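WARN retry 2 of 3 for item q-0093 after timeout on previous attempt; input resubmitted unchanged.
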Amino acid sequence: MPRIKHIATSLFVLYIIFFAFANKHSVTLYLFPSEYQLKTPAFLLILCTLLIGMIMAKLIGLTSMAKYYAQVNLLKKQLETLEEYIKQHDTTNPNHNK
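OK item q-0093 returned
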């Protein structure tokens, strides 16, 4: 399954690259509210937008992963506490603590 995902991602990236280079004409960006204008090739704008989107998606993924990591650590501490409680209050086997 990871191989299929890798192939699909590679094909998507190739498509984006071909699409971007097919759009070589110049684009004028008006930087509102200032009066500045920026002329850039359309493919550069497309690739930069894609890169910014990928970076933002990665950052969102990292924050989600950090939240789950904190939750896993909390659950591990709770598990250790419960295991300790069970060891201290085990009445099924009186010779267990000796």
